[in-house]
């Protein structure tokens, strides 16, 4: 039996984690728009962005699940914990990870549309599941669900809802943990065509009492 262990992401993990992230999201246009195509340069840029973002808040947290025997990261989740309601701001992005101006403009349209839908809906203290992925060789072993459950337990204890922008692939897993549809969107921006569901999970305070 494979020995999977949950742990915090540490300084030495970023190269492997980002490589795993790009492989997990391969062919997902939303990821291409947000992080660029899978090149060494974009992996380095993504690593810098992840590390930099952690300096913006003490309540951002990366978790990984490691295959202890192989010493490999099997999956990871990035949580943004926002225990008090502060209205979200529209963040302008300086897209440097796509080569052509056309792609940069298209990616910007896609990302701004996603952001606007979030701004219109998320008006409460909450936990945001920013990213969740499991590498192809480890999918369908319950790892995604374990990473998600960690956040659900935390959200129950903190009496906070969870908000998620779900890919098609993640949708069934989220439904199975009580995450519900808010809005479904199809976005076509240049070469980036994607569909996602904005989802929300209400906290279960009774579950927190029992745990
Ligand atoms: C979405 C994603 C995170 C799911 O990760 P995962 O580890 O495969 O998820 P789980 O194994 O917990 O659950 C997935 C399915 O495997 C099934 N499963 C879980 N353990 C299993 C096992 N031991 N044997 C067989 N199937 C199993 C689950 O029941 C679930 O089935 P369903 O889709 O029919 O409901 C992963 O597919 C992924 O990284 N995709 C690309 C990136 C992405 O879309 N991320 C989500 C962004 S919002």
Read across the widest sheet, the strand sequence of neighbours is 1-2-3-4-5-7-6
Shape label: globular
Main beta sheet strand tally, sense and closure: 7 strands, mixed
Distance between the termini: 27 Å
Helix content: 25-40%
**CATH topology, which one?**
Aminopeptidase
Tell me the total number of β-strands. Answer: 7
Low-confidence spans? none
From the coordinates shown, what is the CATH architecture? 3-Layer(aba) Sandwich
- Helix-strand pattern, N to C? EHHHEEHEHEHEEH
Report the β-strand fraction as a percent range. 25-35%
Determine the number of helices (DSSP H or I, runs of at least 4 residues). Answer: 7
The Cα radius of gyration reads: 17 Å
Q: List all distinct small molecules, including ions and cofactors, that are bound in this structure.
A: coenzyme A
The CATH homology group name? Gcn5-related N-acetyltransferase (GNAT)
GO molecular function: acyltransferase activity, transferring groups other than amino-acyl groups
Protein name: N-acetyltransferase domain-containing protein
Domain N-acetyltransferase: 49-204
Pfam family, one: Acetyltransf_1
């Amino acid at each position: 039996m494979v020995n999977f262990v949950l742990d915090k992401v540490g300084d030495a993990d970023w190269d492997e984690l980002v490589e795993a992230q790009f492989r997990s999201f391969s062919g997902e246009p939303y990821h291409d728009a947000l992080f660029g195509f899978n090149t060494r340069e974009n992996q380095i840029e993504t690593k810098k962005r992840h590390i930099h973002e952690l300096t913006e808040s003490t309540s951002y947290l990366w978790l990984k699940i490691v295959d202890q025997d192989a010493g490999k990261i099997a999956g990871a989740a990035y949580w943004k914990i926002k225990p008090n309601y502060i209205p979200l701001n529209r963040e302008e992005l300086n897209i440097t990870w796509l080569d052509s101006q056309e792609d940069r403009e298209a990616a910007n349209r896609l990302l701004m549309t996603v952001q606007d839908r979030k701004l219109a809906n998320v008006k409460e203290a909450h936990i945001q599941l920013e990213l969740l992925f499991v590498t192809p060789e480890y999918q369908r072993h319950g790892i995604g669900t374990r990473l998600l459950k960690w956040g659900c337990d935390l959200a129950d204890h903190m009496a906070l809802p969870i908000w998620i922008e779900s890919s098609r692939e993640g949708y069934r897993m989220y439904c199975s943990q009580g995450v519900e549809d808010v809005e479904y969107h199809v976005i076509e921006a240049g070469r980036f065509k994607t569909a996602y569901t904005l989802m929300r999970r209400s906290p279960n305070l009774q579950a927190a009492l029992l745990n």
